[in-house]
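sry for the spam today, last one i promise. struct tokens for design, 149 residues
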């Protein structure tokens, strides 16, 4: 208790003795300098793309048909200048064939027509409700002997 009587007045005395006022510091003056001129020259262009000598013109097609994995898809496209026509197809997992035929005429954008051939088929799943095809293993341990016998 005597210690509390000594510490409390000491703490009050320290708090009252600190009479400095806390004011924010005045703002620092803005730095005075000028931007330096770059010490390098702008790079010269290193590649000049050649101007086209004629409008683009091409024709291509490719197909994939793999009966083992049921993959069947392909793509065909023809371009003459700014007019492009083409189509691509893919065999869907539900059995239908999806074919997309498209055209691009100048700045008209990509205009696509999507067609489906065939009827979607969803075969019933087999094997989920059947019994397991494995047999339970035979135990490979012996019954323990009682230690009290």
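last one done:
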């Amino acid at each position: 208790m005597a210690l509390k009587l000594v510490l409390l007045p000491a703490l009050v005395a320290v708090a009252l003795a600190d009479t400095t006022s806390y004011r924010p510091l005045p703002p620092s003056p803005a730095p005075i300098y000028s931007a330096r001129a770059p010490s390098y020259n702008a790079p010269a262009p290193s590649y000049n793309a050649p101007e086209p000598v004629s409008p683009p013109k091409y024709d291509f097609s490719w197909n994939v048909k793999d009966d083992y994995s049921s993959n069947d898809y392909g793509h065909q496209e023809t371009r003459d200048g700014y007019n492009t026509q083409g189509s691509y197809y893919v065999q869907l997992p539900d059995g239908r064939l999806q074919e997309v035929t498209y055209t691009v005429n100048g700045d008209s954008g990509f205009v696509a027509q999507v067609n489906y051939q065939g009827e979607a088929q969803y075969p019933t799943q087999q094997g989920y409700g059947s019994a397991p095809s494995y047999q339970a293993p035979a135990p490979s341990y012996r019954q323990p002997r009682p230690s009290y016998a």
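Strands lie at 57-66, 71-80, 83-91, 97-105, 110-117. ok im logging off now
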